[in-house]
Amino acid sequence: MSFIKITEQSSLYDNLDKKSVLDILTEINQEDQKIALAVQKTIPEIEKLVIGIVERMKRGGRLFYIGAGTSGRLGVLDASEIPPTFGMPNTYVIGLIAGGDSALRNPVEAAEDNFDKAWEELLSYNINKNDTLVGIAASGTTPYVIGALRKAREKGILTGAISCNPNSPVAVEAEIKIEPIVGPEYVTGSTRMKSGTAQKLVLNMITTSTMIKLGRVKGNRMVNMQLTNQKLVDRGTRMIIEELGLNYEQAKNLLLLYGNVKTAIESYRQQHS
Q: Is 175 tagged catalytic?
């Protein structure tokens, strides 16, 4: 099948520098409204990937994200939010970016062009068949991602790819292809915009649904969240009040004693059964 780089096609809008701020914002918003519909079309593929991730994580497996530039940053961001949100150790969802952590703030020249580097980095984590590797590349042509996906698939590791171009080289290497086609960017080729937003939505869907199926959510509450600030302590306290009918002080003391909502509620019920 032919590969067309839609992400690099000319914007549907021109003379941006001559427009008013209101016109620019309105047009960006019009384009952004296409994103959720593009992601919606990929739900069957996301479902397959999540089912595979959950099966493997129940056996002690991990989820790895790899990417370069904006795509890499989004993967690292999603991974970094799992411990505080769901109380999972930071060893379960791991984000790797071409050029290493310094590339989170500053571009690292030619890092994404290294075909072998990501796989070398993954080997240092002893990646194995219980793990899942998801490559993120808006254009779908990043050598750093392609090389690792190819190696992982050869080794029997579940692989997924998130790209905003159909039939991309990255997608060819992956077992499960997630392709939200959002169309040309408002500023031609600026994939930090619609493509980046689409990738962020997909990543949120992958990890949130995975964590729910792993029991890290009760009802609709983040019962395993880390108590890293007063806002989260207050939120956890109110969850316990709602569940157990205690007063605020009792609930807060219980939460601080056990460290998370889930354990606090379970321990209290055991003691008062």
A: no
Q: Of the residues 8, 27, 55, 81, which is catalytic?
A: 81
Q: What angle do CA 182, 187, 188 make, to 5 degrees?
A: 75
Q: What is the spatial distance between Cα 34 and Cα 101, in angstroms, rounded to a whole number? A: 32
CA nearest neighbour of 112 among 66, 77, 49 = 66
Exactly one of 31, 45, 112, 173 is catalytic; which is it? 112
pLDDT tens for 196-254 read: 999 999 999 999 999 999 999 989 988 888 888 999 999 999 999 999 999 999 999 99
Distances, alpha carbon 219 to alpha carbons 85, 94, 216, 223, 239, in Å: 15, 26, 10, 9, 11
Residues in a beta bridge with 135: 66, 161
Give per-residue pLDDT as tens, 100-148. 988 888 878 778 888 899 999 999 999 999 999 999 999 999 999 999 9
Phi, psi of 214 (to 5 degrees): -90, 5
Q: CA-to-CA distance for 162 and 267, rounded, in angstroms?
A: 41
- Cβ atoms of 195 and 187 within 8 Å: the answer is no
112 is an active site residue: yes
